[in-house]
UniProtKB/TrEMBL annotation:
Residues 1-24 form the signal peptide. This is Bifunctional inhibitor/plant lipid transfer protein/seed storage helical domain-containing protein. It comes from Brassica napus (Rape). Coiled coil: none annotated. InterPro entries: Bifun_inhib/LTP/seed_sf, Bifunc_inhib/LTP/seed_store, nsLTP2. GO terms for biological process: lipid transport. The lineage of its organism: Eukaryota, Viridiplantae, Streptophyta, Embryophyta, Tracheophyta. Keywords: Lipid-binding, Signal, Transport. Residues 34-97 form the Bifunctional inhibitor/plant lipid transfer protein/seed storage helical domain. Pfam families: Tryp_alpha_amyl (PF00234).
Amino acid sequence: MKFTGAICIALVIVLVSSLDLTSAAVEEEIKVACVQTELIPCFVAAFIGSQPSAECCEKLKEQQSCLCGYISNPVFGQFYKNAQNVFKTCGVPYPKC
């Protein structure tokens, strides 16, 4: 009986631990949700060729994992191809998709 109780306790601990890891993974996914409008602060710098703002660089770094999807979008892809100076200034490598 004690052995069964110990197994049940161990199972509960494993389940609770895995829920915490799952929660952390979900929070990480939320942080990097691909929202193209987050890059609006970069539009002026890309079109005019001006210095990108700190906000632009921060958003560009946050959205870095989404950039290939943005570049392949026929509506916005040309914007990103013209924004290579913004990538360089912000220290974000231009994605190789």
